[in-house]
Amino acid sequence: MLNAWKIGRTKKAVSLLCLLPAFFLPLPPSIAAELDPLSTFEGCERCPEMVVIPPGSFLMGASERDIELLGFSDWIVPQHRVEIAYAFALGRFEVTVDEFAAYVAETQAKVGGNCAIRMAESGEWGMKYQGTLHPKSDEARDSAFFVFITDGSYAQPGLPVTGKQPAVCVSRQEISDYLDWLSDRTGQRYRLPTEAEWEYAYRAGTETFAYWGDDLSRTCDFANFADRKSGYQMGLAARCAEKKSLVWTADVGSFQPNAWGLHDMAGNVQEIVEDCLHVSYDGAPTDGSPWAEDDCFVFVARGGDYAHPSYGMGAAPRELLGFVEGPGSPGPVWEKDTAWSVRANVVGFRVAVSLDDRSWDRQ
After folding, report:
1. How many domains is the chain built from?
2. From CA 148, how far away is CA 129, in angstroms rounded?
3. Nearest Cα to 345, choosing from 132, 160, 124?
4. How far is CA 277 from CA 107, 221, 259, 261, 297, in A?
5. Of all residues in the chain, what percent carry a pLDDT higher than 70?
6. What is the crossing angle of helices 97-107 and 172-186, to 10°?
7. Which of 62, 43, 94, 34 is nearest to 266 (CA)?
8. What's the confidence (pLDDT) of residue 113?
9. How wide is the angle at C-alpha 249 spanned by C-alphas 243 and 255, nearest 5°?
């Protein structure tokens, strides 16, 4: 089995490249055990770069200090300790347009469809978008600054995009199919991170509001969000201006990483995770496993996006993706039974891989 892998090791990086896609085999336990915490590897050519996340425990959810900064505690309490007793790997970056395009090119997958587009309020692209307006967009609009297009995809996300920007306007089903493709190519089970795994990796051993501390004036060094130059209304309350003037998303890795070498855990795009949304952490798993529900139609997203304010860049805030009932629902565009087809250009994803037989998905 070892001869199926071509192994190159540096001080803090491990590159795993299969000789031929047809012969990709599971990562041998002997190699998995040798992967140093915070080392990196790539399961195959055009696979996302992965960072090895060590086992550990942390306090998940909002602290009293977090609640003071946020001014609310909805969805993010009670704070509770989570013990992750297994190693896993998480994408160093959000999955990019180029990486998702490689999957589409090889499989000829049919992707795209209705997508919610967040427009800027001012600037070069103020109140502008690309794509075909959905005939019921006005009925579905949950904000004056969203429109719905019928031809949205990773390649047509409503605003100009390059290959290094995160892939958005991808549905839960399309993400699932992409993960299956990665798994087939590598012999490893690629998946979405759970919400607990995601927050553990975001915090990277910190207990502050954000992984750079409690000082929101430092947000511009670490996150693409609604800063003072962003063109988004939330930027009026920002305490800093980013060095780069961005229309919307930035190329992945444009901002400083957290202590574990993970980029864009705050801002750029929200990242969909494995869990179904619950309105509090009462009864949440404490072992790193996902909080699932049969026939779930609202999923958790984490990390905030390019149009969110600085207080949305912290470890605790949560967002959602799916079919939402009531005022502001996109019901005219999506129905409850098509929740896996919901797309938005503020939502992307990063991938995870289990490296340990103690992981929840290997039990």
Report:
1. 1
2. 10
3. 160
4. 31, 30, 28, 28, 9
5. 88
6. 70
7. 94
8. 97
9. 45
Query: What is the structure's pLDDT at 35?
Result: 87
Query: What is the CA 166 to chain-centroid distance, rounded?
Result: 9
Q: Are 78 and 281 in contact (CB under 8 A)?
A: yes
Distance CA(354)–CA(52), nearest Å, equals: 10
Q: Looking up tokens 């607990």, which residue turns up?
A: 196
What element of type H or E holds 64? helix 64-70
Task: Give residue-wise pLDDT tens across range 11-31.
Answer: 233 323 232 233 334 455 544
> What is the reported pLDDT for 326?
67
Express each pLDDT in 66-89 by its tens digit: 999 999 999 999 999 999 999 999
User: The CATH number of the domain where 156 resides is what?
Assistant: 3.90.1580.10
Tens digit of each residue's pLDDT (9 = 90 or more) over 35-78: 899 999 999 999 999 999 999 999 999 999 999 999 999 999 99
For residue 91, give the nearest of 213, 201, 251, 176 by alpha carbon: 201
Q: What's the whole-number average pLDDT of the chain? A: 89
Look up the domain containing 341 and give its range: 2-362
Mention every residue, 6+ apart, whose C-beta is less than 8 A from residue 255: 221, 222, 223, 224, 263, 264, 267, 268
Tokens 């959810």 sit at which residue? 61
Does residue 150 have a pLDDT over 80?
yes
304 with 312: CB under 8 angstroms?
yes
Predicted pLDDT of residue 8: 28
CA distance from start to end of the chain: 23
Q: Which two tokens mark 298?
A: 């609202």
